[in-house]
Specification:
- The chain is of the alpha+beta class.
- About 20% of the residues lie in helices and about 30% in strands.
- The strands form 2 sheets. Strands 1, 2, 3, 4, 5, 6, 7, 8, 9, 10, 12, 13 and 14 form a 13-stranded mixed β-sheet that branches. The chain has a two-stranded antiparallel sheet with strand order 11-15.
- Strand 7 and strand 8 form a beta hairpin.
- About 5% of the residues have low confidence.
Amino acid sequence: MELHILEHSLKVASIEKEGIQTCTHGLIKLAFLASKTRCKFFSLTETPEDYTIIVDEEGFKELPQSENISVADATWLALNVVSGGGNASNSQPIGVTKIAKSVIAPLADHNISVFMLSTYQTDFILVRERDLPMVMHTLSSEFTLLRVVNGETVAAHNLGVSNGFVKPKLAPRPVIHPLSSPSNMFCVTSLDPDTLSSVATLLMDVMFYSGGTKEAGPSGEDSTHIRFFSFSLIEGYISLVMDEQTAQRFPNNVLFTSASGELWKMVRIGGQPLGFGS
C-alpha cells in the first residue's frame, strides 16, 4: 500500500454557532465560488456544538478575523492511503477499517494525534506538520511513502529520522470516552460540480439557516435526533454527509446515491469536544 502525503497545509478551526453570520461571506465564496479563490481543500461540518472548518492556507485567507473563530494551534497535513500503486487512476481508496488498523493504531501507540476526515471519494488522515518525521518513521515499514509536490507524486524522504525511537509496548486500549448513537440515519453522497449552482440556494439554507428546524419522529420530537451536516470541496470533488430528511429536500437525480438507498448510522465519541491535545 501507498501513503500519499498531500501538499496542502491545513488549518482546523471552530466557529461558534451564534457567530456563523460573520463568516458566511467567506464560506459561501469557498463553497460556491471556488474558481474565484486559490483554495483547493475546504470542508465545513456543522454539529450540535459548532461549525468545524478544515481549509488550506489560501482558503483561510477568505475568512475574517473574529472572536467567534478558534483556530487549532498547529498546521496540519493530509495523508491518503491508496492501493494499486503507479498511475493515480489505478489507485483505490482503502476502507476505514484498514486505515484504523494500519495507520491510526500505530500512530496512537506513539502518542501522535490524528484528525480523520471521511468523504464520498476517500478518507483523509490529518496529522500535525511537526509530527511528520515521527509519522513517516512509524509507518515506513508498512507503506511506500510518497509526497505530492506541485501536483506530482514523488518518493518521500525520511526527513533524517532513522534512529532513537523505541517501539512502544502494545497494550489494550480501554474505552475512555462514552459512545452514543443518534436516532437519525445518514447518507454519504456527492454531486457533479457542474450542477452545484442549481442547488446553491438550497445548500446555503441547509448550511446556514436550517439549524433551528428539527424533523420530529413519528411519535413527536426525538431528543436523540442530532443536527449534523458536512460539505467538502477538495481538489474539485464535492462530498456531502447529511441525514435522510435533509437529503429528501434535494431534487431527484442530483445527488449520487446508490440504487439500494444505503444509509449509515452514526456513533458519537465523547460527551463533549475532545480537542487537539496529545
